[in-house]
Amino acid sequence: MAKSGSEKNTKNKAKHTKLMNRKKNKMRDEKEARKAKLKELAKKMNEKK
């Protein structure tokens, strides 16, 4: 028999999903920034040669 009342655990799941998405986006942005920085550095080094 199903429980009556509010659904169990949906607020925590939503909060967790939000936090995990924030973490994933942060990691992706850092990775892209690092990649761009290295690309720019490589370009500078090639121009120097």
If you had to describe this structure to a student in words, what would you say it looks like?
The chain has 49 residues and is an all-alpha fold. The protein contains one helix and no strands. The longest helix is centred in the middle third of the chain and has 39 residues, at 10-48. The protein starts with 9 loop residues before the first helix and ends with a helix.
| Biggest beta sheet attributes | none
The total count of helices amounts to 1
Q: Provide the gyration radius in Å.
A: 22 Å
Structural class: mainly alpha
Distance between the termini: 75 Å
Report the count of strand segments: 0
Give me the strand/helix succession: H
Poorly predicted parts: none
Global morphology: rod-shaped
Strand content: under 5%
Mean pLDDT: 90
- Range of helix content: over 70%
Summary of the model, kept short:
The termini are far apart. This protein has one helix spanning 10-48. Helix content is 80%, strand content 0%.
What attributes does this structure have?
49 residues, mainly alpha, 0% strand, rod-shaped
Protein topology:
Layout: H1 10-48
